[in-house]
From TrEMBL:
Organism in which the protein naturally occurs: Lysobacter enzymogenes
Highest taxon above the source species: Bacteria
Membrane association type: Multi-pass membrane protein
Domain ABC-2 type transporter transmembrane positions: 27-365
Keywords: Cell membrane, Membrane, Transmembrane, Transmembrane helix
Entry protein name: ABC transporter permease
Entries under Pfam families matching the protein: ABC2_membrane_3 (PF12698)
Amino acid sequence: MNAFLGDCARGFQGALKALFADRAAVMSILVATVIYSFYYPAAYSYQVASRLPTVVVDLDRSPMSRDLLRKLGAVRAVDLIAPEPSLAAAQARMSEGKADGILIVDADFERDILRGDQGRVTFLAEGALLSRANTVLQGLADAVAGFSQDAVLVQAQFEGLPNAAPMRLVQRPLFNTREGYASAVVTAVAVLIVQQTLLLGMVLLIGTHQELRGRLALSAGALSGALAAFWSIGLLNLLYYSGFVYWFQDFPRGGNLPGLLVCAMFYIAAVVAFAAFVGSFFRVRERAMQVILLLSMPLYFLAGLSWPATSMPDWLNWLAKLVPTTAGINAMVKVNAMGARLHEVVPELATLAILALGYGAATLWRYRPPTPSNPSQNHDA
């Protein structure tokens, strides 16, 4: 036991020494983590898109249609630009990239409302940028909803019901209270950033080890100590994001702090074991950067937040579960942003524990020293 603990201590110290002696690894694990914490959220600092150019095609040209356009001008999401006389002209404006949305007010809009019918309007949005299209459509819908409430009062008064009032729908977001894009995306991507920076740094160090020594051969104690060193660094990185960065950027946070610590420990354990196993297959350190950076976005989509898991094939969902970020992102968002209890993230914790044990066992096998009976045995990929 004493020998094992001694090996652990030497492995812990050796891993930290190797890390700080490698400039690229330090940049990947430590410096890049801090840079990304400010650089990545900067693109979403406004949280929601606003004042998106929208062109109007008013085929009615009535007092009511002009009243609708006045209400539309008060909506933050859209910015009315010069109107067009026809749908074809408005579509040409959109195809040139000068408009993100189109509002078409049908002919006889006012007449239909005064007769007690529904006036018809049509919303169109540019689908190339989904977030902007959704903002435009939501803004147009809000303006029309406000106008429709006034139109209902006009119809009620016409029918002799002056006290009639339309039902108002009040929406209150529970977790993403600012309804911001950054609050929804960055809090999830941050968990992926921690994995990718830690994965890249560890694989660089492992690749260097193989280039210099030609093989992977560590005792169980030394390997455990080295993994514990990276686990400590990864845990600090994740807590830095979940604590300071979310507070500084004013993202949803602090829903369940004890649960956050538990999920963070399980997640980083799975990431470190995964990185050590994956790194054993890279004999050239530069190859790691090419592969890992290429897979960052697919790993985020596989997590099931921006693209629902129910819309993916079953085999792809099972493949996604082999990567720690799939369970880790969902667990961290639940406990930190949504205040979930630990029993509500048991499936994610179980998946992370299985991954940590599975990749840990595979790592021990990959890094096992050669047996005395065959000292020339080489276990490298």
